[in-house]
Write a structure and sequence with these properties.
Length: 393
């Protein structure tokens, strides 16, 4: 156990090896942690568990450090298996322990475990006195599951926020002031872009609601990655910034897939056009770039230019899959344009342009396309295309 603050302890698992999460959907280059917490007061409270592959290690740790018979209640902030996966194994050993969760959490727990446990439903504003401290519950519906909630430990002033404010990051230290800040922020924004972005408007409202509650917050302890104890509000402010519909950083992204470099050459010429108008850009070949990292870059980009050569009357698959993923993650509201080379029919750039519009991007320019390898003259037209796009920003 590691003390977080005033008898609130971390009893989680560091998963150094994790490289893919949510099945294989999300890359986790820096591993992850499953943060579970014990609050020792007149009552001993366990908040969340860990992913089931670690259930034995987790329960053994609890037995050694706390004693299972001493656990008076369990709070399940969110029933996704990376947090509640060990609940079944734990409850086999302490089957009468009361569980507290949101209304949606009750359904989720029953749906996952099919057991008749002592489940107590709580809602926003409900509280439980556990001795010196009081637990206050705040539903976090769709941040990012219907059942999500946070538990505020009033007295210790610790927010146990579950997925919100987390990162897939297995760091050298559990605390934000003891880790590499670039790594930490890369992982925090990647988490937001790939998991929370579809719920951006809800997050903005929820942060406003939590601010209005005027909670004294000394520590924010999420269920993945580091615990924010040094200026914990910094991550709330970042979430508020990221949840704005016009959030972006100061660069464009040109993302393309290419067979024989014609589309790649066009991408580089378009980048030159952007640069001529003081717009910096990053170029990514979507077929060789990690999808989760690419989504993070697209989330941060202030504008997106997307290209593919035409194949079978459409686009290369990495681009069509990326457009689909962008729609699902509700990446929208950015200026965008399309380009690409073709050999015969040339539908690819038009498909991209239409799909960008359908996804909610702002597309004003007609796509630019050229047959086979672009000539010097055509590359100049690509530069001009980049200049025109830049001027429209
Ligand atoms: Fe980390 Fe939604 O589970």
């Amino acid at each position: 156990m590691i003390e977080v603050k005033n008898n609130v302890y971390w009893v989680g698992i560091k998963d150094w090896d994790l490289r893919r999460f949510h099945g294989h959907e999300l890359s986790t280059h820096r591993g992850s942690t499953y943060n579970s917490y014990i609050i020792k007061d007149e009552k001993t409270v366990l908040v969340d568990t860990v992913w089931n592959p670690y259930k034995e290690e987790f329960v053994e740790n609890l037995e050694r450090e706390v004693g299972l018979e001493n656990i008076d209640m369990i709070i399940i902030n969110h029933c996704e298996p990376d947090h509640a996966g060990s609940l079944g194994y734990l409850m086999e050993k302490i089957p009468n322990t009361p569980i507290y969760c949101s209304k949606n959490g009750e359904q989720s727990i029953k749906g996952h475990f099919h057991k008749d446990w002592n489940i107590n439903v709580v809602k926003t504003g409900d509280s439980l006195k556990i001795g010196e401290n009081e637990l206050v519950f705040v539903e976090m519906t769709m941040m990012h599951w219907p059942d999500s909630m946070l538990t505020y430990v009033k007295g210790a002033n610790v927010v146990l926020s579950n997925d919100a404010f987390g990162q897939h990051y297995s760091p050298s230290s559990l605390f934000n002031d003891q880790v590499d800040q670039c790594e930490l922020y890369q992982e925090a924004i990647k988490y937001f872009a790939n998991i929370l972005n579809p719920f951006r408007p809800l997050i903005k409202k929820k942060i406003e609601e939590i601010k209005a509650m005027n909670l004294d917050i000394d520590v924010i302890a999420p269920s993945h990655g580091v615990i924010w104890r040094d200026n914990p509000i910094q991550i709330v402010e970042k979430y508020y910034e990221w949840s704005q519909s016009d959030f972006s950083e100061d660069y464009a992204v040109i993302v393309y897939d290419t067979m024989y470099d014609a589309t790649k050459n066009m991408a580089q010429a378009i980048a030159e056009g952007l640069r001529n108008n003081n717009i910096n850009s990053k170029l990514y070949n979507s077929s060789v770039t990690d999808k989760s990292d690419l989504i993070t870059e697209l989330f941060k980009a202030k504008a997106i230019i997307m290209g593919s050569c035409t194949v079978n009357n459409g686009t290369l698959s990495s681009i069509s899959m990326l457009l689909e993923e962008m729609q699902l993650l509700k990446l929208k509201n950015k200026p965008a344009a399309a380009f690409g080379s073709f050999g015969w029919s040339g539908e690819g750039p038009g498909h991209i342009s239409e799909r960008l519009k359908k996804n909610g991007m702002k597309v004003d320019l007609e796509p630019i396309k050229f047959k086979y390898q672009p000539t010097e003259e055509q590359l100049k037209e690509c530069v001009e295309f980049g200049e025109k796009f830049a001027q429209s920003l």
